[in-house]
Amino acid sequence: MTNQTSNKRNNNRANTHTNNNRRNKRKNNNSSSLFLVMFLCIVSLVGIVAIVFLSKDLMSGDGVNETTIPFTADVKMQNVKWPQGVELKAEQFIANPLELTGITAEFTGNVDINTIGTSKVDIKLKSEDGSTKSVKCDLEIYEDKEAPVISGVMDRHFNVGDNIAYLKGVTALDAIQGDIEVKVDNSKIAFDENGKAIEGSYDVVYTATDLAGNSATATAKFYFEVNGVTDDMIDAKADEVMANIINNDMSLAQKANAIYLYTYENIAYTGHSEKGDYRKEAYNGLTTLQGDCYTYFAVAKLLLSKLDIPTIDVERGLDNNGERHYWLLVDLGTGYYHFDATKRVHWFNGFMATDAQVNEYSTNVVSGFYAFDPTLYPATPTEPFVY
């Protein structure tokens, strides 16, 4: 009985050990399966992420076409000078945009348009075939508070029915940008039902604006007459006179002196002129050879303009007899001097005179003859003009 009990105990121990082994084996199998499942999940997740990013690159063309499709477009790049705070586009750095089709540009980094100075900008070019190219250019930001300068605006003369060339001889120059567009406001001109200007005089306003928003304006008077004096008539007469009094061997000062002598010697003083329209009165002076101080002023101004010599109109206020006087300030490269070819009873050399010289005449020869406000005009050099 003792043996039977002992055997039974041994069998129970064996069964217990077997059951434990089975339990351990199942646990090991379960752990291995869990690890395998987790591993497969991680691999799958990484694969999905990789596929998403790869698909994104393939869809956008970034990073793929740049290496697989050569960028063959002949794009010429340029450095750019740009006013502070003004919106800038990447296309501004392309020097030959008119020669290109299907090319776009975009900045790929921060572009500072508010800090004065020079910096590098990164630009990505993209062709319509999907190829791309990265380039670097210099961007110079500057402060611009200077308005453009408009030149060539002057009173114009037309016969009723003439075609109007508003921008003939008119330009605008900016210190940074160079030549810029000039816009014309002709809204004050009255036109008939056929689009022809109606007889009369009208203001025409010219405006030029640079990239920084600085604007300049200039106003001209446009005259429309029936069988009147036209610009072509005025310019033809002035050119005829100039051909007879100057030649290419003369210096600029000699040419200006020739204009002074022609005006002084050929215009007879009658005490009468048609004031307000200097070009028309210059034509009258050149064709009738008579007039008053306004005629001398107008003829000299017209002829000097043919040489692009800078002039400033000077006007004396009414004297005791209720009369005004007109003359010019002229700059031949050494500063503005007085230029007055008017004939008078008491002679005065009015070719390139200094402030001191006109003041001496006005004080000691003919009282108040040159009584003008010096604060309105540039002072002349103190040295007498020599050429």
Characteristic terms for this protein:
387 residues, Immunoglobulin-like, four-stranded mixed sheet, 23% strand
What does this structure look like?
- The chain is an alpha+beta fold and 387 residues long.
- The chain folds into 4 domains: 2-60; 69-142, Immunoglobulin-like; 149-225, Sandwich (Immunoglobulin-like); 231-376, C8orf32 fold, CATH 3.10.620.30.
- 33% of the residues lie in helices and 23% in strands.
- It contains 7 helices and 17 strands.
- The protein has a 4-stranded mixed sheet, with no helix packed on it. A 4-stranded mixed sheet has the order 6-11-10-9, with no helix packed on it.
- Mean pLDDT is 86; it is low at 1-5 and 49-67.
- Average pLDDT level: 86
* Cα-based radius of gyration, to the nearest Å: 44 Å
Low-confidence region ranges: 1-5, 49-67
Per DSSP E runs of 2 or more residues, the count of β-strands stands at 17
General form: elongated
How would you characterize the largest beta sheet?
Answer: 4 strands, mixed
The CATH topology of the largest domain turns out to be C8orf32 fold
Helix/strand class: alpha+beta
